[in-house]
Amino acid sequence: MRQLPKQLQGLRIPVVASPLFIISNPDLVIAQCKAGIVGSFPALNAREAAGEPIMLEAWLKRITEELDRHNQSNPDFPAAPFAVNQIVHRSNARLERDIEICHKWKVPIWITSLGARVEVNEAAHDCGGISLHDIINNRFARKAIEKGADGLIAVAAGAGGHAGAQSPLALISEIREWFNGPVLLSGAISTGRSILAAQAMGADLAYIGSPFIATEEANADQAYKQMIVESGAEDIVYSSLFTGVHGNYLKPSIIRAGMDPDNLETADASSMNFGEGRSKPKSWKEIWGAGQGIGAVKDVVPARALVDRLAQEYDAAKAEMREIVNG
Ligand SMILES: Cc1cc2nc3c(=O)[nH]c(=O)nc-3n(C[C@H](O)[C@H](O)[C@H](O)COP(=O)(O)O)c2cc1C
To answer: What percent of the chain has pLDDT over 70?
Structure first.
């Protein structure tokens, strides 16, 4: 067995809840961590109006203190650590400030997307944390490790948000030819059986996003949550139009916005903008992102109940697999 960094050990199930733009908030992160999996949020979700106290500080204070309190009263079932996602893209004008704040609060797990940078990894290490970088192919995976990331998040085909196009089987196999460190697999994982499948493929943990949109704590429109419940893999469209990078979206939300999901234009990466004055502010608000795994989501539930379901299914899948392995 590979030895994982201490931040990824001792989880109830081998799962990191992925950061979701707009949707992940302290309520969701705290519920995920208390349920025994790593919870996360994008730093950019914590926003304040000009002149107001820095929201990221307030979020980190609340999450840290609430999890500490929980751990003191539940020493036998402590909460899992949390992660903060940094969008490492030139249009993210807050990056330097957010790195400083995360360093000050000793964020235990740093997730970086859209760019691998040595100084972000150094900041994570300097405060005792680890960094995981998300990638969609083997070339980016090598670059991320060269720049000092501790682990990789392989974003395969079918993932919600900015997804890759490669089969998880191919992506993980290529990475495991040269990398023995922590690998998380992302893309349409929404059952306990799929978590075990990710491990069988060679990943250490599953990285799960879309199912958490349909939770009570998630900061998402009720109609969005309901659309996740009612949709399946065939309702997902892969398009670059909305952000300039290919991602997966709910077809009914595209139709509702007056577009033809079967005839979407393409956009190029130069249109990506994570700054304050986004050129397409509607893109993530009205066109709703989701991965292909949402067929397994049958109800809007508290995050705890979702983790309980995954844990029960994971245990059942392990028992089933033991029978197969033992003949
Ligand atoms: C609505 C939505 C928003 C997302 N926002 C972010 C983000 O801000 N940062 C990031 O690194 N990944 C983001 N992702 C990608 C997820 O972190 C993760 O890779 C993906 O959800 C995993 O696939 P799954 O949704 O099929 O579980 C987002 C995904 C969705 C569906």
So the answer is: 95
User: 236 alpha carbon to ligand 1 midpoint, in Å?
Assistant: 14
Two structure tokens written together for 275: 């700054």
By most ligand atoms within 8 Å of CB, the mutation choice from 18, 41, 135 for ligand 1 is 18
User: What is the Cα–Cα distance from 326 to 111, expressed in whole angstroms?
Assistant: 38
What predicted TM-score, i.e. pTM, was given to this entire model?
A: 0.95
Q: Report the pLDDT value the prediction gives residue 275, as an integer from 0 to 100.
A: 63
Ligand 1 atom closest to Cα of 162? 15
What's the CA-to-centroid distance between 18 and ligand 1, angstroms?
A: 6
Looking at the structure, give the CATH architecture of the domain made up of residues 8-220. Alpha-Beta Barrel (3.20)
Q: How far is the CA of 320 from the centre of ligand 1 (A)?
A: 30
Return the number of other C-beta atoms located less than 10 Å from residue 49's C-beta. Answer: 6
* Bridge partners for 311 per DSSP: none
Instruction: State the pLDDT at residue 276.
Output: 55
Ligand 1 atom closest to the Cα of residue 207 is 22
